[in-house]
Amino acid sequence: MSKDTNSYQPKVAIIVPIYNVEKYLKDCLDSLINQTYKNLEIILVDDGSTDKSTDIAKAYFEKDYRITLICKSNGGQGSARNVGIEYVSNGFATTPLLQPNTSHLSPNRADSTNPTLDHQSVPFILQANLTPNALSANHIDYLTGNVFSFASSYMTMGGGHKLESHTSHSPIYTKSHKHSLNLPHKPMDYTLSSCIVFSHKPMPPKQVEYIHFVDSDDMLSVDCIENIGECDIIWHDTKYIYEDGISPSPYKQSILEWLKLDSKAIEKPLNASEIWANIEGFSCVCGGGGVFHISLCEKLRFAPQIQSEDALFGMLLFAKAKAIKILPNPLYIYRLRADSTSDHTLKQDSTLKPYPPYLAEIAYTFANSYKIKHYHFAYSCTYICLGLLAYIESLDDSQLALKNKLIEFLQVRAIYAFGAVSFESDPKYVRPLLKPLEPYMQKVSKANKIAYFMPRIFKILKWINGKRKRVRIGKIQNSQILP
Asked: Which fold has domain 11-137+190-336?
């Protein structure tokens, strides 16, 4: 760490996925443009908003030259973050749709011999397409462990279909299993191929060294992006704001309380094994994950259109890092609200709401918001487990401590993955995907083990329990009617 943190001012890209947050977006963007750290690129990725979010984003774009606005069709937060990563990693080739008129000059910066555009008032409108390098670049497919091209992963993926419904399945092979499994195509994401970009510069930003994700209903403390140094990750604590009648959780802890570390332990940077030594599970909410070096994104992207898409990304991001600096200050402000994508107030009798196309199959099958959310979560955890398993098997014996800790995390996620077989239907055909996870069922409930290995017996037991419950309810209702 040779550079003086007081003079070291690397360029930081703040990537903000936006979708229907007109009520909260101004608070978020005000917290970004007022950061005390000024060497920023603020990348707003509008993910097909249908409210006034796009207009608000454009208004902020017009008043701050550091802001770039990218508009794309809806594909989910992971997809939007992937677009932001590609943009700051020079993964897009831009084609001008509308170039500034050179007659608009900045009076303070231009003269007759060297005209300079006032980029704050005369934006570029560009079409961005994945570059040939990005299309052909090799990335690691953390779902199968194989190497793939960006195009085949993000452009032609299908998702959650019955195994025999496609002919282009690729088998998944693992070192610890002699069998192979025909894996259905992964979640579909056609939204990365082409975007419209509003920028104050004719080209994507260069020399971005660090990235920070911020959800568009959250905020940063004004001094959040500071003290970067040369660590791979600068991980800061989170402050929670509870709205819409959501009660504060008694289980929310500071980073140090959660990790069971004291202030002395974090005086120097740590690696992932040291940070995770005292915990059994890890789920990194993207914004709260802090600032991280862009090199960690090499061969790492979000899986689109799954719940907790930041869980796998976060585990692998931290696993790849060599130096992680923990700042115990609550610099990220996380808003818990009723109508967020996390559905903090969802109940079993919640009203059915509109769902995006990629959830149509699940929504049609269950027609119950509670079941839709929890089945989709089980389906998502299955992909997280498979991706984590593939990464684990890529590690060598010199990384045994890290490998064992990730296996522990995998066992925790498998609890929820195997929950998919307890539902009355399996529209995403999760059951065959669970086969490679059988050795990691140590923490899976007895009921879900029965549902997986003995599905007919599970259905009979479930029917008996349902009948008993109906009898009990009937007795209670009768007792209330009788005088």
From this structure: Spore Coat Polysaccharide Biosynthesis Protein SpsA; Chain A (3.90.550)
